[in-house]
From TrEMBL:
InterPro entries: DUF4282. It comes from Arthrobacter wenxiniae. The chain crosses the membrane at residues 20-39, 45-66. This is DUF4282 domain-containing protein. The lineage of its organism: Bacteria, Bacillati, Actinomycetota, Actinomycetes, Micrococcales. Residues 97-109 have a biased composition (Low complexity).
Length: 126
Protein backbone atom coordinates (compact mmCIF):
# COMPACT_ATOMS: atom_id res chain seq x y z
CA UNK A 1 0.00 0.00 0.00
CA UNK A 2 2.94 2.28 0.70
CA UNK A 3 4.11 1.92 -2.90
CA UNK A 4 0.75 3.19 -4.11
CA UNK A 5 1.55 6.67 -2.78
CA UNK A 6 5.21 6.71 -3.90
CA UNK A 7 5.35 9.85 -6.03
CA UNK A 8 8.89 9.12 -7.27
CA UNK A 9 7.67 5.88 -8.91
CA UNK A 10 10.70 3.91 -7.70
CA UNK A 11 8.55 1.00 -6.51
CA UNK A 12 6.28 -0.94 -8.85
CA UNK A 13 2.92 -2.08 -7.50
CA UNK A 14 1.80 -4.02 -10.57
CA UNK A 15 3.42 -7.35 -9.58
CA UNK A 16 1.70 -7.30 -6.20
CA UNK A 17 -1.77 -6.56 -7.57
CA UNK A 18 -1.59 -8.68 -10.74
CA UNK A 19 -3.19 -11.67 -8.99
CA UNK A 20 -6.08 -9.54 -7.77
CA UNK A 21 -6.60 -8.03 -11.22
CA UNK A 22 -6.52 -11.47 -12.85
CA UNK A 23 -9.11 -12.85 -10.42
CA UNK A 24 -11.35 -9.81 -11.06
CA UNK A 25 -10.99 -10.33 -14.81
CA UNK A 26 -11.98 -14.00 -14.42
CA UNK A 27 -15.05 -13.02 -12.39
CA UNK A 28 -16.11 -10.39 -14.94
CA UNK A 29 -15.63 -12.84 -17.83
CA UNK A 30 -17.63 -15.50 -15.97
CA UNK A 31 -20.48 -13.10 -15.21
CA UNK A 32 -20.51 -11.86 -18.80
CA UNK A 33 -20.66 -15.45 -20.05
CA UNK A 34 -23.55 -16.20 -17.71
CA UNK A 35 -25.46 -13.08 -18.79
CA UNK A 36 -24.86 -13.93 -22.47
CA UNK A 37 -26.19 -17.46 -21.96
CA UNK A 38 -29.32 -16.23 -20.16
CA UNK A 39 -29.95 -13.55 -22.80
CA UNK A 40 -29.49 -16.00 -25.67
CA UNK A 41 -31.88 -18.54 -24.09
CA UNK A 42 -34.48 -15.78 -23.88
CA UNK A 43 -34.15 -15.25 -27.62
CA UNK A 44 -34.21 -18.88 -28.70
CA UNK A 45 -33.36 -22.26 -27.16
CA UNK A 46 -31.14 -23.26 -30.08
CA UNK A 47 -29.18 -20.02 -29.88
CA UNK A 48 -28.96 -20.48 -26.11
CA UNK A 49 -27.45 -23.95 -26.51
CA UNK A 50 -25.07 -22.64 -29.17
CA UNK A 51 -23.84 -19.88 -26.85
CA UNK A 52 -23.74 -22.23 -23.85
CA UNK A 53 -21.73 -24.97 -25.54
CA UNK A 54 -19.70 -23.44 -28.38
CA UNK A 55 -19.56 -19.66 -28.75
CA UNK A 56 -19.52 -18.65 -25.08
CA UNK A 57 -16.62 -20.84 -23.94
CA UNK A 58 -14.51 -19.92 -26.97
CA UNK A 59 -15.03 -16.18 -26.47
CA UNK A 60 -14.50 -16.43 -22.71
CA UNK A 61 -11.32 -18.45 -23.17
CA UNK A 62 -10.03 -16.01 -25.78
CA UNK A 63 -10.58 -13.03 -23.46
CA UNK A 64 -8.99 -14.90 -20.56
CA UNK A 65 -5.91 -15.75 -22.63
CA UNK A 66 -5.59 -12.14 -23.83
CA UNK A 67 -5.88 -10.83 -20.28
CA UNK A 68 -3.27 -13.32 -19.06
CA UNK A 69 -0.84 -12.46 -21.86
CA UNK A 70 -1.29 -8.75 -21.19
CA UNK A 71 -0.64 -9.13 -17.47
CA UNK A 72 2.37 -11.39 -18.08
CA UNK A 73 3.82 -8.86 -20.53
CA UNK A 74 3.40 -6.10 -17.99
CA UNK A 75 5.03 -8.15 -15.24
CA UNK A 76 7.90 -9.18 -17.53
CA UNK A 77 8.61 -5.57 -18.46
CA UNK A 78 8.55 -4.51 -14.82
CA UNK A 79 10.85 -7.35 -13.74
CA UNK A 80 13.23 -6.47 -16.55
CA UNK A 81 13.33 -2.87 -15.34
CA UNK A 82 13.88 -3.95 -11.74
CA UNK A 83 16.63 -6.41 -12.67
CA UNK A 84 18.37 -3.86 -14.89
CA UNK A 85 18.30 -1.26 -12.12
CA UNK A 86 19.72 -3.82 -9.69
CA UNK A 87 22.53 -4.75 -12.10
CA UNK A 88 23.46 -1.11 -12.58
CA UNK A 89 23.41 -0.60 -8.82
CA UNK A 90 25.59 -3.68 -8.21
CA UNK A 91 28.10 -2.64 -10.86
CA UNK A 92 28.46 0.71 -9.13
CA UNK A 93 27.52 2.55 -12.27
CA UNK A 94 25.53 5.64 -12.89
CA UNK A 95 22.65 6.14 -15.20
CA UNK A 96 22.99 4.88 -18.76
CA UNK A 97 23.43 7.74 -21.23
CA UNK A 98 24.83 9.88 -18.47
CA UNK A 99 26.34 13.09 -19.73
CA UNK A 100 29.43 14.96 -18.59
CA UNK A 101 28.66 14.25 -14.93
CA UNK A 102 28.88 10.48 -15.37
CA UNK A 103 30.75 8.78 -12.53
CA UNK A 104 34.25 7.57 -13.30
CA UNK A 105 33.38 4.02 -12.26
CA UNK A 106 30.93 3.69 -15.12
CA UNK A 107 33.27 2.87 -18.03
CA UNK A 108 30.57 2.56 -20.66
CA UNK A 109 29.19 6.06 -20.26
CA UNK A 110 29.16 7.98 -23.53
CA UNK A 111 32.05 10.35 -24.00
CA UNK A 112 31.23 14.01 -24.55
CA UNK A 113 31.98 15.42 -27.02
CA UNK A 114 31.84 12.26 -29.11
CA UNK A 115 35.16 11.32 -30.63
CA UNK A 116 35.14 11.86 -34.37
CA UNK A 117 36.18 8.82 -36.36
CA UNK A 118 39.37 9.08 -38.37
CA UNK A 119 38.78 9.41 -42.10
CA UNK A 120 39.69 6.39 -44.22
CA UNK A 121 43.08 6.55 -45.93
CA UNK A 122 43.11 7.96 -49.45
CA UNK A 123 43.46 5.57 -52.35
CA UNK A 124 47.00 5.39 -53.79
CA UNK A 125 47.61 7.57 -56.80
CA UNK A 126 45.21 10.36 -55.92
Amino acid sequence: MKALFDLSFTKFISPSIAKIVYVLIMVVIGLTYLIAVIASFRVNAVIGLLVLIIVGPIVALLYLVLARVGLESLIAAIRTAENTAELVRLSGGGRPNAGPGAPANYPYAPQYPPASPTPPPAAPGF
